[in-house]
Protein: Negative elongation factor complex member B
Amino acid sequence: MFAGLPELGISNGDDLKETLTNCAEPLKAIDQFQMENGILLPTLQSALPFLDLHGTPRLEFHQSVFDELRENLMERVAVIAEGKEADRYSKLEELLEKSFPLVKMPSIQPVVMQVLKHLPKVPEKKLKIVMADKELYKVCAVEVKRQIWQDNQALFGDEVSPLLKQYIVEKEAALFSSDVSVLHSFFSPSPKTRRQGEVVLKLTQMIGKNVKLYDMVLQFLRTLFLRTRNVHYCTLRAELLMSLHDLDITEICSVDPCHKFTWCLDACIREKFVDGKRARELQGFLDGVKKGQEQVLGDLSMILCDPFACNTLVLSIMRNLQELLSQDALPRDSPDLMLLLRMLSLGQGAWDMIDSQVFKEPRLDKEVVTCFLPAMMSVVVDDNIFTVEQKLPSEEKSSQAYPTLLPDAFYRFLRENRVACEMGLYYIFHIAKLRNKNALQRLLPALVDTYNDMAFGDIFLHLLTGHLTLLSDEFGSEDFCSVVFDGFLLTSFSSKENVHRHILRMLVHLHHKVAPSCMESLMKTLEPPKQRLGPQSSEPLKELYTKLTEKLEAQKKSSPAVEETPSLDLGLHTVTVPTSTGTGSTST
Structure:
C-alpha cells in the first residue's frame, strides 16, 4: 500500500516497525517518528494538544489536511497545464518524476493521474508501465489512453469492438421495434438526435483530436463493412464525422476530404430532400475528386451507402419524377434527377468498390433512365387515369378494368438492377401513403423476385409494415390479405426468420383488422417451428408469436358480449313477423 515511499526518502510502516523493534524506549521512539514525519510546521506543534483535548484523533486531522492539500495540488496542476508559460509542461514532468513512484498508493494515485492527463506527451516509459498494469490502465484518463492507443492498434481495437457491436445491435433493434407506424419509423430521428447516441458520443470522446485514432476507427468500419456487408457501419462512418464537426474538432474535420460533402448531405438528410442548390454543391464535390485522389471515392461511396442518405436520395428521386410527370418531361432531360441517380448508384456500389479497390464511379445503366423509369411512370399514369375515371359520371366511365399486369421492363429491372430495384421499392411506399389499394395489389407480387432479395431486407420490411398500417381497414378483405400475405410476405418467411418476425410485428399491431378466416390461417402458418420439426426458432420470434396469441385471446374474451346482441335481434325479428298462428307458436 505504501510502496514507493522509501524511493522518495519518506519513512513507511516497515521503518516504524524496525525502529520499535530495535529501540529501548518505544514511547520516545514514537514521538521522534511523529516529529520527523509529521507536518513540518513549528506553530502546529503547540496546537496539536488542543485537538487531543477535543478527542480528535491525529489520524483524522492528518487525513483532512492531506485531502485538502491533494485537492489544491490537483487544481494547481490543471491551472499550470492551462496556462501559457513556456515551461508549464516541464514543471508537470518534474512533478510526475517525483510522484510516479507512488502511483499505486490509492491516496496519491489521483494526483499522478491528473499530471498524466495534462501532459500532451507522457514519457514512453511511464506509458508502458500504465499499459502493462490492468488496474492503472483502467483508472487512467482517456487523454492518457489515447497516447497508448495510437501506438497500439490491437488494444484500441479491443476497446472499440464492443461499442461497434453495440451500435449494430441498437440499429437492428430499432428495425424490429414494436412501434409499427409511418410517424415513428427507423428514419424518424433527426441526424443531430442520432449523433447523441451513447456509442457515437463514446467514440467521439475516445478519438478526441487524434487524427491517427480517427483513421483507425475508419479502417475498422471499412473492414467490418467489407466482412459483413452491414450498411449500418456506413451510417456510423458519417455520424462520427458529423459528431466531430458538431464539436468543431478542426484538427480532424480539416483533413477528412469527405467533411464538406458529408456536411452538405447531412443537411439534406435533415430535410429529407436534396434541393437544387445542395445538389449542385454535392455535384461539385464529386466532380472535384482529382486524379491520384480517387481513393476518396471509397469513403464517399460509404457515406452515400448510409441508409439515411439512400432514403433521402430515393425520396428526392420520387419527388423529382412527380414534377416531371406534371410537366410532361422525360427523366433523361432532368440534370437534378441524373445527379440523384449518380449518387444513388455510387452508394449502392460502395461494397464492390472497397472490395475490388478499384476507385472509379460505377456507370449508371442508361436503360434505367430510358426503359425502367418510363415503365414506372407508365404505372403512375395508369393510376392517375383510373382515379380520374372513378370521379366521372357513370355514363362517361369506360368499361376498362384496373390493370393487373406490369410492364415487362419493370419486372426485369427489379430483378437485375439494384438502383432500379431501390426506386421500385420506394414507389411502393409512395402508393401506400396515397392509400392506393389497387396499385399496391398490382405491385406487391412483383417483389417476390428482386435484386439480391432486397424486398426481404429488414429496412424495406420495417418501412413496408409501417406503411401498410395506413391501409389497415383493407385487411378486412380476404382478397387484400391474400395479396399481402400469400402473394408476397409468406413466400419466403420459412427460410428467412427476419421476414417471419416482421409479419408478426405487423399482426400484433393490426390483428383486430385482419379478416378472421385469414387470421386463423395465419396463426397456424406462422407458429414458430419446434426443434423436432426443423431449426429452432429464436427467442424474439417466440416472444412475438406469444404476444400475438395473448392479444387474440384477449380479443376473444372481450368480443362475445358484442356478438350476442345482433344474434338476439335476428331471433326477435323472425318472431315479430309471423305468417300464421301455428308458425308463431312453433317459434315460441
In short: Residues 38-151 form one domain. Residues 562-588 have pLDDT under 50 and may be disordered. Residues 445 and 580 are 56 Å apart (CA to CA).
